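User:
Can I borrow your eye for a moment on a structure tokenisation matter? Would you put together a sequence-and-structure record for a protein of your own picking? Please set it down just below, with no commentary around it:
AI:
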Amino acid sequence: MAHQTITPTGREKPFTGDRMIVSKTDLRGTITYVNRTFMEVSEFPYTELIGQPHNIIRHPDMPRTAFRHLWKTIQSGEEWFGMVKNISANGDHYWVFANVTTDYRDGRAIGYYSIRRPLPEPLKQLATELYAELRRIETAEGMDAAEKWLMDQVEAAGFASYRDFMLQTYLKHAGQAGGEA
């Protein structure tokens, strides 16, 4: 199946509660497994997900810098955490807090495993503003400049790493969400 460009509707699809979206990919990011929640929220049937690049659900509002950082992190064997805006098959969007980690078999990396939880409401605005600025910098100065700006923001906020920034920010707001995250 050829990957079609999906036109964003501007409507947010609710993704709340204690449900989790789960997927697995091979080392190149090709989907090898999705759970039922992934299919329900993305509105893609199983047959249109398996064998496709995971970026089939990438919303155009997401800066390339975020995924560049994700790939650098997971290819070094570390876990990645972050806020992600995805697009469903009908063009609606949904926000998640993602954790991506390496999937090993017999001590050898075979792919990646991702668990996504609902993003607490206050973090959607933070992510929207952060990602708009990253896209602006990417366009004006390139991805290296955008990544440097992002790391400068993490340091200015008093965090030792992007991972610490994401985890602490999520945990702070997840606790205030009253079960919605």
Remarks:
- DSSP finds six helices and five strands in the chain.
- The domain at 21-175 is CATH 3.30.450.20 (Beta-Lactamase).
